[in-house]
Amino acid sequence: MTRRFAPETFEDAAAALAAAAAAGDSVQIRGAGTKLTWGTATPAAQTELCTTSLDRVLEHNVGDLTAIVQAGVPYARLREQLAGEGQMLAIDPPLGNPSEEATVGGVIATGDSGPLRHRYGAPRDLVLGITVALSDGTIARAGSKVIKNVAGYDLAKLFTGSFGTLGMILSVSVRLHPVPLATATALGVSSDPEGLTAAVRVLAAAPFELDALDLAWRGGRGGILARCAGAQAPRRAKRVAELMGRLGLEQVDVAEPDDALWSRQRAGQRSRERALVRVVSRPSRLAGILQAVDGAGGTLVGRAALGTSYVEVDPEAVIRLRGALHAGEYSVLLDAPASARSQIDAWGPSDPVALGLMQRVKQRFDPAGTCNPGAFVGGI
Amino acid sequence: MPSGADVVGRLQEICGTEHVLTHPHSLATYRSDGLAHYRETPLAAVLPGDAAAVADVVRACREAGVPWVARGAGTGLSGGAIPVAEGVLIVLARMRRILEVDLDNARVVVEPGVTNLAVSRAVAPTHFYPPDPSSQIVCSIGGNVAENSGGAHCFKYGFTTNYVTGLQVVLSDGTVVELERDAPGYDLLGAFVGSEGTLGVATRIELRVLPAPETVRTLVAFFEDTGAAGDAVTEIVNAGIVPGAIEMMDRLAIRAAEEATHAGYRLDAGAALLVELDGPREECNARFEHLMSLCARAGAADVRVALSEAERTQIWQARRAAFAAMGRIAPAYYVQDGVIPRTRLAEVLRQIDALAEEYQLQVANVFHAGDGNLHPLVCYDAEREGEPERAEELAGLIVKACVDADGSITGEHGVGLDKKAYMPSMFSDADLEAFQRLRCAFDPAGLANPGKLMPTPRLCGEVPGPYREHPLERAGVAERF
After folding, report:
1. Which DSSP category does B479 fall into?
2. pLDDT value at position A42?
């Protein structure tokens, strides 16, 4: 039987974690559970510690463009609250279907992101500070609430994307950005992987200051989406579209409003029935990745200039997709049916030296292996 | 256990005798970094020529139980590269090759001794590398990685940590590890950047670069006082304008900089605000009009717009020269690096004024106004009885004022030796213990840049086993954690 707690204070959270550790229990640290199946499939933990009652926005410092948010705050609610002041946290992953219940802590702990990563970086680039509970009952804080700070180690980055294996994220302080006055998206299509790759290269190197530069690929045909944001967005998008035309893209157009386009890109980062694999390569390898996707019968959305792609394939095609990747490229299995997850190594191979260092980090922060044991890279 | 002399012999085998310095004369340059009032003479300084030699040097130190400190160009302003007595100083100045310029993937790969400016030059004119510390002509990328350096363009573009995408690191046991930003697993890369040389030495650095902005527009606005200039900053940011740079100088800083550069700054102004917008031309031009009206509304007495690249360079020259120009005002100064939430700028500047008056010392303010990173320069004359001590005390109170305003003790210079005593004002014991966990995972023997960053030296608790005296404990440098 799994015992389940949803502590309402940081102290209660730390005490619950310490008690479980002292009893030798394994603890599953979780938010709303929209991404619980990610990572290595593990047996049910003896204790479940939910952040859902840590659900307050502690500070929104409008003039400073910062906020301090407890881990259990639903991300959609935070977004709404910030938008009320014309601001946003520039992390835009899909938030779970249909009710968008993903929490801030879950987004940070999985390092999940969306199209805005092109301009604003990954979650680790926007987290300024963090408060965590460790399995010995310690509550520790790193970073700060100001946008510039180099005092102490950047544990906020260490915990971001750590899948709850080092401790429980209690709150984060984050950097905010103004919501742009307008957005417009230039788009063009092509069925030539090499042509798309070349177009991405030119668009990525052009001084358009795009908020997002995405790719969508399905059944041998794909499109590039370039989003401009700011008061002059429509005029700028028109200029981007003109370049797309010169680069040989077809059906070039400017979409305004463009929200639906980007919702679709985000939705492509999840799969309900098939498998969803995040692939990392250099942008110049895009054509090869697209061919690999075709070879595996898959579809792709992704950050064209970052080389991060989300590929949906049938579970049995994951191996084929991975086989087509080059050395130095990575693939991580995110969504997959339970039957498939036990058959596939979610994380893929790791560099043994780096993995050894990660294991030493885990030992120092969670020596008894209490927090989310086995779910992370290399069995951490 | 081998002695110090054995280590020197081993270093000579690894790097060649000509690259191992032990004579006090040749070590003189390496006793200090950018903070000249800290000095220490190491046992030896070694200049390895490549990553393999660095790994061998670190391994030799480990085998002999000798602590070591890595040093780039030595421009750091926190004493982070001050050697440890009886330790080895690993100088990376010979490793200055640009290994790869790959603009198709917006990346560049360099050795740690390459200067910050050389990176931007290597990718110009189509691209640029945003973090640009004032020392960019000489400071090294390895040092930038160690300190997570910033510069004038951080508010819009971020810091070194946002641009490092890969590192080859020599750990304190001599192991070489590749840390990649997008590799699955813990963000060890993110933890390493800004770790001030305490987690290892970066021997190869991969950086992301950006397309150079299409349009750059620069102005300098003069205000009656820093309060009015601060209000202008608030107006600008609240209008949703994110300037490429937004820098403030107060009356004293203007005077020093103007005397040094004759850039045309108004000597009768109480504050100068340098604002630079960059980006796509439509957006940049529209925002620049808006910016001009906001400056006027905030009471700017005069606004000068750079009409040519030469005028822009001139405006920046005054800002970049401000630190060095302080020599015209005072023989010596302490520079602080505190950060405050931008909304509390006026309040903290008033506190600094009051403190300066109380201590009968001049304080010049030159700072990155967008991100609230203050650089108060506390001027003093070392020849005057008691003045250095008073200046140091005042500098400490300024840091305290920043922390009390919910800020930070350091925005870009690092903790090093200089600010480690302030760490407990910002972090609890539990926080510091959490930091120590990370340090112990990387460097259990505690040989990498010991005595920096943490307020009191700590040793790593080992996995249970028989107690052994640690070399630093024996030397009285550290106590057991």
Report:
1. B
2. 92
CA distance B81 to B196: 9
Contacts of A231 in chain B (CB under 8 A): 283, 286-287
Contact A236 B283 (CB under 8 A): yes
Q: Do B283 and A150 touch (CB under 8 A)?
A: no
CB contact under 8 A, A364 and B104: no
Report the interhelical angle of B226-238 vs B345-359 (nearest 10°). Answer: 160
How much is the pLDDT for A97?
A: 78
Rounded-to-5 percentages of helix, strand, coil across chain B: 40, 20, 40
Which two structure tokens, joined as six digits, stand for B241? 């304008």
pLDDT tens digits for range A306-322: 999 999 999 999 999 99
In order, the DSSP letters of B277-340 are EEESHHHHHHHHHHHHHHHHHTT-SEEEE--SHHHHHHHHHHHHHHHHHGGGT-SEEEE---B-
- Provide the pairing of β-strand A299-303 with A308-313: antiparallel
In this prediction, residues A258-273 reach a mean pLDDT of: 96
Contacts of B411 in chain A (CB under 8 A): 146, 148-150
Complex ipTM: 0.97
The minimum CA-CA distance between B146 and chain A, rounded to whole Å, is: 10
Distance (Å, rounded) from C-alpha A374 to C-alpha A362?
11
pLDDT exceeding 90 applies to what percent of chain A? 97
- What does residue A266 show for φ and ψ, rounded to 5 degrees? -65, -40
Of A204, A236, A357, the CB nearest to B280: A236
Which residues of chain B fall below pLDDT 50? 463-481
Calculate the average pLDDT of chain A.
96
Alpha helices in B91-244 (DSSP H): 116-123, 141-147, 154-157, 188-192, 226-238
Residue A119 in tokens? 């301009």
**What is the side-by-side strand order in the sheet with A275-280?**
A250-255, A183-190, A221-229, A212-218, A299-303, A308-313, A275-280, A330-333
Separation in Å, CA A332 to CA A35, A36, A280, A349, B184: 14, 15, 9, 10, 7
Q: What is the mean pLDDT of residues A92-111?
A: 93
DSSP single-letter state for residue B246:
E
Q: B209-231: per-residue pLDDT in tens?
A: 999 999 999 999 999 999 899 99
Average pLDDT over residues A251-260: 97
> Which of B154, B367, B437, B460 should be substituted to probe chain A, the one whose Cβ sees the most A Cβ atoms within 10 Å?
B437
Using CB atoms within 10 A of its CB, is residue B474 exposed (0-12), middle (13-18) or buried (19+)?
exposed
What count of residues does chain B have?
A: 481
pLDDT score, position A196 = 97
Q: What is the CA radius of gyration of chain A?
A: 21
Cis preceding-peptide flag for A115 (omega within 30 of 0): no
